[in-house]
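Reader question, answered in our methods column.
A reader sent in the components of a multi-part assembly and asked whether the whole thing could be modeled at once rather than chain by chain. We filled in our standard form and ran it. Here is what they sent:
COMPLEX SIZE: two components
ENTRIES:
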Amino acid sequence: MIDNKKHLVQKSRRQFLRNAGALALGVSPLRSLAATDNNEGVSLAGGMRPLVKYPEKRDLILVHSRPPHLETPFSVFNESLITPNDAFYVRYHLANIPTEIDLNKYKLSVNGAVKKTLQLSLQELKSMADPVDVVAVNQCSGNSRGYSLPRVFGAQLSNGAMGNARWTGIPLRTVLEKAGVSPEAMYVIFNGLDKPVLPTTPDFKKALNIDHALSPEPLLAWGMNGEDLPFLNGYPLKLIVPGYFGTYWVKHLSEITVLDTEFTGQDSYFMNTAYQLPDNDCLCITPGSTADKNRPISTLPVRSFITNISAGDTLPSAKPIELEGIAFDDGSGIKNVDISIDGGMTWLASTLGENLGRYSFRPWKLAVSFPQKGNAIVMVRASNKNGEVQPLRATWNHGGYRRHAIESVAINVT
Amino acid sequence: MSNNTSFITLLSPMIIGTLLTIVALACISPSVSQPYASTDTTIKKISLPASTISLPVSKLPGYNLALQKCTICHSVDYIHHQPPGMDQKAWTSAVFKMQHSYGAPINESDINSIGAYLSVVYGTAKTDDPKIIEASKSTVSSSLSTEIIDVQVLLTNNGCTGCHDINKKIVGPAFKSIANKYKADTDAISKLVLSIQHGGSGKWGSMAMPPMMNVNNEQAEALAEFILKQ
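And here is the structure of the entire assembly that came back:
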């Protein structure tokens, strides 16, 4: 079922505080407590993150304003399996972002090691092939970075830098095939209309291996959940790379360049220097040390969340309670989602719900009953068909990337 | 401007949310894409809210440098929302990264000074720590009257061209627009010098210009003359 779900605790403490804060506007203790909610357990140098209203968006959590970076409040993931467009997170790297796009002037340029350079309008793209749909999770590489220990610099995200949407477009390879890719091609580089402020700052460009670019998965999408892409999610065209972290999903896509060489130079920064993981089995290092070798971040590790309870909630004992949540991975497919209500001593298998496709959030639910009163730790652990299981403890890397440890929610049972 | 924007303005966020949920529910059946109505207008335009967070005031020289340099490329909330408890070394290396990886126009002395300031106001360092004092006093003075003033170098080193273009508005107004506004003003040079050194009031848009405290009078006058000639 993907209909609107109800939070298990109708009036959680946090909602109460938020309502109280709204009524008693300007009363500082309540306001600051309510604002704590936006940090979702992440402490910050400058205090609490405000909720802000951006074009085509409901109130989202401010990470930073120039360039815009907005996080989805976690409660949204309890509303529906598909993340609504107005709640979907926003992340830019460079401050010269487009604020006006005229479709009469917009062109997607396809160039480099191709037989024929293309300049395509959105209309031309739309008429190149029958549109296809994929439901896929876009998760930021740094989602949950705020929980990294020791802490690392970077956007101090809670768990809301992710979303699940139905993307509509045409396969990337349709365009590449039309341009005629050189047999020597190695990479395909993607660039969008967002630009750096200074000429000394690298532009935001990402690369896919040619084999990946020519596979059926990557899409050039103009539609998101049955509407045009919201401006801040990359209108009018976005690269969709199912199973891969959001860093590859280039917004306001304007240029595709086929390379028959390595990708080098200042503008290869976000591919070759940033968004790197230690190149070893665990993709991790001991805090403070440096990896001998790094490699670009790529696919989503298996991950799961409980969406209908949150930390500090109060639940009744000896009463059936249906826990609900989501799990996702790189497209291998979710195998099991297990729940523990005793802090990880014993695990119970949940029931998986509707399958919207292998790249989508997969819902799960399980009725549990808390035998005794007091504090309880509820945990969720997913495994996938590729044999991956979420680890109990998070590993560490310098960028605070790719967090996917088992989530624990501390609640009170009365 | 466009139908799209006015459509969005008219609807409350709650209604949009509901509509989107309905749309999402309607498209759940997999495989072939269902066509959907798109607006006729070809121009889509947004306007972004201004940042409301400012840097904590401090007497440390790194404060003015941070005001001037950091905000060339990003809002203050970028800094404000970093982890607590970081020390001077950590903050200084974060500022170094801004220069080394992102090409921020800051020299070694600026990096040390900004790092010291940020670690005091956001981290574990104390203003009277000898290391903070040492890192803060190294600011290079560029007020030598004998130096040759090169406007292009000034524009680059102070990050002016990050926000201003000669012909078109970026974040700040085009130099041509400024020249046009002040063309009949006999006091234009001193007004521009004031804006350059002490920052703008936001009269050109939502993003006020940061003060360029390191630009001395001769340099500011040279910049003002250059801008007014456009």
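What stands out: The two ends of chain B are 30 Å apart (CA to CA). Chain B has three domains: 1-47, 61-136, 151-228.
Send us your own complexes using the same form.
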